Amino acid sequence: MNSGSTNVPGFQIVIDRTGNAVYNETGRRFNVMREKQGPAKPEQRRIASATVTRLYADLAAAAPLSAMPSQHCAKSVSFGTKLTMEYGEEQTPDLSCPGAEDPHVKALMRDATAIINVFRPRGR
């Protein structure tokens, strides 16, 4: 889940264990944009099985997610976003702060980046 910001819509990607994934826009800017443009259609993609396997292994290794170290970093009010993962009833702290030293945070950020790039390739 990416929270979005004042200037950028957020998004949520839901992935099942078979690799089926759905991308939906959300966030603060979402409602204003959609009033003018109409609702965005969810995008569906298939995530590589190796990526899905690694994601679920990294989530299990990081459990409980609520015990992961919280990252604090300065972010722009207009452009700053928060990136988290939810698994079961738990949620990670913000994974998008640079310089994270915790190996679980690094692994989940790597997984998130790989998955986001399936939907939002560089340059898009």
Summed up:
The protein is an alpha+beta fold and 124 residues long. 33% of the residues lie in helices and 17% in strands.
Describe the fold and architecture:
With about 120 residues, this protein is α+β, with helices and mostly antiparallel strands. The protein has helices spanning about 30-35, 50-60, 105-120, and strands at about 10-15, 20-25, 45, 85, 90. It contains 3 helices and 5 strands; from the N terminus they run ββαβαββα. The strands form 2 sheets. The chain has a 3-stranded antiparallel sheet. Strands 4-5 form a two-stranded antiparallel sheet. Helix 2 packs antiparallel against helix 3.
Number of domains: 1
Q: What structural category arises from helix and sheet content?
A: alpha+beta
Residues in helices, as a percent range: 25-40%
- SSE arrangement, N to C: EEHEHEEH
- Tell me the overall shape: globular
Nearest-angstrom radius of gyration?
15 Å
Write the layout of secondary structure elements.
Elements: E1 10-15, E2 20-26, H1 28-37, E3 43-46, H2 49-62, E4 86-87, E5 90-91, H3 103-119
Helix pairs in contact: 2-3
Main features:
two-stranded antiparallel ribbon; single chain; 124 residues; 3 helices
